Each structure stands twice: as structure tokens, then as C-alpha cells.
Amino acid sequence: MPWDFVIDQILAYRKPPAPKETRTEPRVSLSFRVKYKTPEGNQFDSRAGGIGGGGLFIESTTPLPVGTKIAMEFSLSEQPPEWIPAKGVVAWVCPKADQYTFSPGMGIRFCDMAQELRERILRIVASLESNGQAA
Fold first, then answer.
1. What's the CA gap between 48 and 123, in Å, rounded?
2. pLDDT, position 122
3. DSSP code of 39?
4. How far apart are CA 26 and CA 126, in angstroms?
5. N or C: which end of the chain has fewer CB within 10 A?
6. What's the rounded Cα separation, in Å, for the pair 93 and 66?
């Protein structure tokens, strides 16, 4: 049996490496409204499926390309809605629902965020984590 064949067989049965977790901030699964705008001026109104100190996940059947910068505002409370402004960049895209996300969409990494806003989000995430809603 040639070595090339043996090596091909071994590689075919090799498990793919587990994806490395790149998040450094805690996060929770939470559904809330988010509005966002692209640099070209396109505006969208959607739902977010989770949030953490580093960013959030926006549900979308037509996610923006990785690297797209957006201006957004989101409301973590429904009554009365308080819109929190933030800027972000598309860090990753999930074009269809899979075993990790229940909806297609895009992961947004916060950028240019005021420290007080970041601390507020972390307090909300910590509060929800202690209530058993961790992602």
C-alpha cells in the first residue's frame, strides 16, 4: 500500500480542531431591538439575540460583510424604551441558522464606546448571568 494512500486515509478521519473561543467578555442570550445604519446610509431595524461587553449578535437574513462599520442604537428595556447609541464593526457572519446560532445574522464588535456605557452593559450582563441567562 503506498504511503500517500495511508496518509490520505489518516487525514480523512482526523477530527477538525475545535473552534477557539475569541470572546474575552461575558455575554448573555437576550432578545432586544436594535437599529443600525451603514456608512452608505442604509438603515435597518432588527432584533439582537445576545449581548456582552465586547459586542452583540444582530439577527439578519442578509448580514453585512465582515469589516463593515455601523452606527447603531439598541434598547435593552421595552418600557419605556431607552435607546443606547454605539458604534461597531461586523466581526463575523452566520449566513444561516446552525448549531450555535438559532438565527442567521452577524456578530458585531463594539468600537469607540464610552467607558460608562461599556460598564453599564457589563453590569446588565452580570445581573442577567446571576439570574441564570448566561449564553
1. 18
2. 87
3. T
4. 8
5. N
6. 7
Give the pLDDT confidence of 21-72 residue by residue, as tens digits: 555 666 788 889 999 999 999 999 999 988 988 899 999 999 999 999 999 9
Q: Show the cell assigned to 99.
A: 448549531
> Taking the alpha carbons of 132, 33, 103, 115 in that order, is the dihedral positive or negative?
negative
Residue 79 has pLDDT above 80, yes or no: no
Span 8-30, average pLDDT: 62
Residue 32 contacts residue 73 (beta carbons within 8 Å): no
SS3 14: coil
The C-alpha cell at 12 is 480523512
How far is residue 2's CA from residue 20's CA, in Å, rounded to a whole number?
35
- For residue 11, CA distances in Å to 1, 6, 79 come to 16, 9, 55
